[in-house]
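INFO batch 0412 | record 1 of 1 | parsing
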Amino acid sequence: MKNPKSAAAVAVPWSGKPLKKRIMDHWQLYAMLLIPIVLTIVYKYLPMYGIQIAFRDYKASQGMFGSEWVGLKWFERFFSAPTCVRMLSNTILLSLYSLLWSFPIPIILALMLNQVRFRRFKRVTQTVLYAPHFISTMVVCGMLRIFLSPSGGLINLLFGSSVDFLTESSAFRSIYIASGIWQDAGWGIIVYMATLSNIDTSLYEAAKVDGASLFQRILHIDIPQLRSIMVLNLIMSAGGLMNVGFEKVWLLQTELNKATSDVIAVYVYQQGIENAKYSYSTAVGLFNTAVNIILLIVVNKLASRISEDASFV
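INFO prediction complete | emitting tokens
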């Protein structure tokens, strides 16, 4: 009978070796790993030092430690602001609606494309779906303003109307979500198509022999294979739930649609860059980040219960 320790040593050649020995044996790999670690520390962790600005009355002339410590003053000011509830509700609703509508679209498109057997048509369709992703947000917003123009806009020409949709608060969320789906849904199918392409074709052949319909093959073969990547994408999307795309909201916002377009990201920009309220804008941004972290932890816990993949535990 084999010794389990020796079997483990065979399976993992470096098991049992001291750390220094492992580093000396594979120093090239550790040197390559050092580059992303250093970049992460410099660009991700060191800037966290500036979070304390949210708890100070920061003045550039006095520096970080010369500025007065005010504790939770800026958080209290934000929560007592008359537009606080509106910004929170707009941010949450816009994020939830975007997730609700945009998350399943790439999955549906991938399942449909996976059934296409004409390769040339499949490639052309994929290219057409990918293309909008490479259009900049500035150009997309310019296109939207042209299409939605009350005078000569494509939408108004089709409906024979002269409505300025960008001044309608009730239309802003639909415009934002629909344009986001058009721009990013095609790009989102890449990871799903890659997963579907690795499915053993014998599973489909066996299902056909057993008399399974197309819908049954999708339901019992394709979707179970996509479950892990679907859960992972859901976790990643939930982690940025409060980070509504600033650029598009900023470019499409007008004074007349602020009832639904006034979100935290735009407010932070206005207070921090335009009004130079550095401490206040940092406090609002820190609150937004804290909510994102909480949502990420909650969704990760929920996902661990519905996924059999140990990586989500």
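INFO post-check: The chain is about 70% helix and 0% strand.
INFO record closed
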